[in-house]
């Protein structure tokens, strides 16, 4: 009979010693959420370095023939209950001063397992072959791939040394900064003050979206002087690493290695200063560790914890609540739960996966679906649900989107659209399996110009973005009384209490009506009249999806392009009927506008260089004309992009040639700055229309916005015709369709002043009750905030 050691030696060719570039998984199974702390531990394939739970390691052996595995098992150590808690001081996980979840310590044991019989050999052991010992040592010493991705995300935003710190010129103008009682040189602000390290001016910081903060005097001073570095007063202590230094030219928080010297120039003895202000990072940290536990999270309510199938929470990976809330609602739909749970086993997903299942979206969605819906990871444990960490799913879904790859908060609406786009791509070979299709519907816009002729433009969308008509509020009398009370208390120097605040209450029906309501389009260029005129635009739906998602435009742009969140309630009924919103298409007697494309768009916005970019580059010593050329050839994307172009083209033979309008127009048409596209998308425009508008307007956001409003006939989607004489059936377009009655099944709510900060929570209607999903916490909802949603999910009622 062959002994385990003999069997191991006969399979040494299957054992690899990992190299530094190899990805080694040792924290979590690639097809389930089993870990070394699971009952059966974790099995690491010593050839591919993928990790598997007890159930799936057999599948890997059948698929690859790899028989040798390193088994990791962690057992909890007893922990003293009086261990002191430390508040984090660093935006990081697992580093000194960083986040500590105060988890118990574990003892880890190792052994070599040989499949298919699960024969075991102890490790460490001098009897093991040297190759095996070297491989195991390398695996255990290596940083796991999961951990690497997590650290990269957290440290992606680490502060860098400023390029202007080492050679910063300081002006000897006699300024001596006192140790306290600072005040802005241009207003009466005594907090949020910044010391310019070039001339010693003390000025207030930026004004926040909600009106708080400073009066922008520090940044205005930079624009006037171009002095790049400032330090926030109140953050300077003996530990200078904690000081908040900002570089206006680099537009980010930076490190100044010579900060002590720069402060001493203005008579500042930093060793005697006490910290009085929070740094920018600490404010973000404070927001992440102390959420605003308001009604959305049902704070103060006796929420009953729930466990079992469909009641599994998602661990927050760091500002990942937007992902968690969205995925909880997504997997409450039959289309996603069927595709990735009911009709697809984990074994099927693994068999269909590529060699590395961690990079396959369908596999990771199946893993997530089984993790959320099976109930395997949702069992009572000390009256607290642990939840599952969606690390691998987040890494895959974010691979093509740099923002979602970061640890910054994101817009759940943008993530929802990105998710459906990626799911559609992942199912391209078998579109009949694509669950994203259940959210798709067609929109038709009708335009009629003063000539009487019409055009019909159609596109496909996955959610209906609705403006909120505040003038349709049903509590106008209470609002007027509140404004009077607010004015009275303001005169008395008193503040309004939270209990006294009255918010507009707008019916959802009014929001839906605003989508279909006639809208005047001024300066519409009519090819029938060959002139600009006023057109009337109306919109309707050509199909009704299985699941209707309503996106409430709570973030609007005020004058000066300042974003603002609408503090408003939306009265949302449990059942809605949108049958009246179905588009009727071309009607008898209507005449279509001619399909003529003009080149006037480019002529109307001839390319020109952004003067801010040009002046900043010129200040660095570059030739002014070359700077203009660089800005134009990078579509005014930014200083860094223009500088990179300059450095790459300084020796071009035509660098001194005049700028050609035709050639530059061609460049502008081929170059679109993605950050500007994202900005327009955040305003509520579709990405493809935003790209067209930026191309037509030379990369200028304001001109692009005007272009969109002046060209409403432009269709973004290639999925549907731009102009049509009749409405094709939804089935011809591959879209689901049915009746217009829907029931509310879920909502994603947002807390905070911006989609880029705050917190997201999901509420889902299941098993005849509302359930709250707040990251890893899952409970029976007592008072679901149905009037405070950001995304509403409706399911079509049949019959």
Automatic annotation (TrEMBL):
GO molecular function, one term: cysteine-type deubiquitinase activity
Pfam family, one: UBA
Top-level class of the enzyme under EC nomenclature: hydrolase
Domain of life the protein comes from: Eukaryota
All residue ranges annotated as the USP domain in the record: 312-797
Keyword Hydrolase part of the UniProt annotation: yes
Every UBP-type domain range: 160-270
Full protein name: Ubiquitin carboxyl-terminal hydrolase
């Amino acid at each position: 009979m062959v002994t385990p050691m003999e069997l191991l030696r006969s399979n040494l060719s299957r054992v690899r010693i990992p190299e530094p570039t190899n990805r080694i998984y040792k924290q979590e199974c690639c097809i389930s959420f089993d870990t070394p702390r699971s009952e059966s531990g974790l099995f690491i394939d010593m050839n591919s370095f993928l990790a598997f739970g007890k159930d799936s390691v057999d599948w890997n052996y059948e698929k690859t023939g790899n028989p040798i595995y390193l088994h990791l098992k962690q057992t909890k150590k007893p922990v003293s209950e009086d261990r002191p808690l430390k508040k984090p001081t660093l935006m990081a996980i697992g580093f000194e001063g960083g986040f500590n979840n105060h988890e118990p310590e574990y003892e880890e044991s190792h052994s070599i397992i040989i499949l298919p019989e699960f024969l075991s050999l102890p490790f460490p052991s001098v009897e093991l072959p040297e190759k095996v010992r070297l491989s195991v040592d390398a695996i255990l010493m290596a940083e796991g791939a999961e951990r690497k991705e997590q650290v990269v995300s957290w440290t992606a935003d680490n502060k860098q040394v400023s390029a202007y710190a080492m050679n910063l010129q300081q002006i000897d103008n006699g300024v001596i900064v006192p140790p306290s009682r600072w005040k802005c040189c241009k207003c009466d602000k005594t907090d949020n003050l910044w010391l310019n390290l070039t001339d010693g001016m003390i000025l207030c910081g930026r004004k926040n979206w909600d009106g708080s903060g400073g009066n922008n005097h520090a940044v205005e001073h930079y624009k006037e002087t171009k002095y790049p570095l400032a330090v926030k007063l109140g953050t300077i202590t003996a530990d200078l690493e904690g000081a908040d230094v900002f570089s206006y030219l680099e537009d980010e928080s930076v490190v100044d290695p010579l900060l002590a010297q720069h402060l001493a120039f203005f008579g500042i003895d930093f060793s005697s200063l006490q910290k009085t202000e929070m740094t920018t990072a600490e404010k973000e940290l404070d927001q992440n560790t102390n959420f605003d536990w308001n009604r959305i999270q049902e704070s103060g309510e006796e929420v009953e914890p729930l466990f079992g199938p469909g009641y599994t929470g998602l661990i927050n990976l760091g500002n990942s609540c937007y992902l968690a809330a969205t995925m909880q609602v997504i997997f409450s739909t039959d289309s996603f739960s069927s595709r990735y749970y009911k009709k697809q086993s984990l074994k099927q997903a693994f068999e269909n996966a590529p060699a590395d299942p961690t990079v396959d979206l369908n596999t990771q969605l199946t893993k997530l679906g089984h993790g959320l819906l099976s109930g395997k990871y949702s069992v009572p444990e000390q009256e607290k649900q642990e939840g599952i960490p969606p690390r691998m799913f987040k890494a895959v879904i974010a691979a093509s989107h740099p923002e979602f790859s970061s640890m910054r908060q994101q817009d759940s609406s943008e993530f929802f659209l990105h998710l459906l786009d990626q799911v559609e791509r992942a199912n391209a070979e078998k579109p009949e399996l694509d669950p994203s299709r259940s959210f798709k519907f067609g929109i038709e816009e009708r335009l009629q110009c003063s000539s009487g002729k019409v055009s019909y433009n159609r596109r496909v969308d996955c959610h209906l973005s609705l403006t909120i008509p505040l003038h349709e509020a049903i509590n106008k009398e209470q609002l007027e009384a509140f404004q009077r009370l607010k004015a009275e208390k303001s005169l008395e120097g008193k503040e309004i209490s939270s209990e006294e605040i009255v918010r507009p209450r707008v019916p959802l029906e009014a929001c839906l009506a605003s989508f279909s309501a006639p809208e005047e389009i001024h300066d519409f260029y009519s090819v029938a009249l060959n002139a600009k005129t006023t057109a009337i635009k109306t919109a309707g739906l050509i199909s009704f999806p299985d699941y209707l998602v309503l996106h409430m435009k709570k973030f609007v742009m005020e004058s000066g392009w300042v974003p603002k969140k609408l503090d408003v309630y939306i009265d949302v009924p449990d059942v809605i009927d949108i049958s009246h919103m179905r588009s009727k298409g071309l009607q008898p007697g209507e005449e279509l506008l001619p399909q003529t494309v003009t080149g006037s768009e480019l002529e109307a916005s001839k390319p020109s260089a952004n003067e801010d970019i040009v002046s900043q580059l010129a200040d660095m010593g570059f030739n002014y004309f070359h700077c203009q050329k660089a800005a134009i050839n990078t579509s005014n994307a930014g200083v860094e992009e223009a500088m990179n172009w300059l450095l790459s083209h300084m020796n071009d033979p035509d660098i001194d040639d005049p700028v050609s309008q035709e050639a530059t127009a061609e460049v502008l048409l081929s170059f679109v700055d993605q950050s500007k596209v994202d900005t327009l998308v955040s305003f509520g425009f579709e990405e493809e229309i935003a790209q067209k508008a930026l191309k037509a307007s030379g990369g200028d956001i304001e001109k692009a916005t005007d272009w969109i409003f002046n060209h409403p006939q432009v269709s973004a989607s290639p999925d549907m015709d731009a102009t049509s004489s009749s409405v094709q059936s939804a089935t011809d377009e591959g879209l689901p369709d049915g009746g217009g009655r829907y029931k509310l099944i879920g909502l994603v709510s947002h807390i905070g002043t911006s989609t880029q900060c705050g917190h997201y929570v999901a509420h889902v209607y299941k098993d005849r009750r509302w359930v709250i999903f707040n990251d890893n916490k899952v409970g029976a909802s007592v008072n679901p905030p149905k009037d405070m949603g950001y995304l509403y999910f409706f399911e079509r009622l049949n019959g």
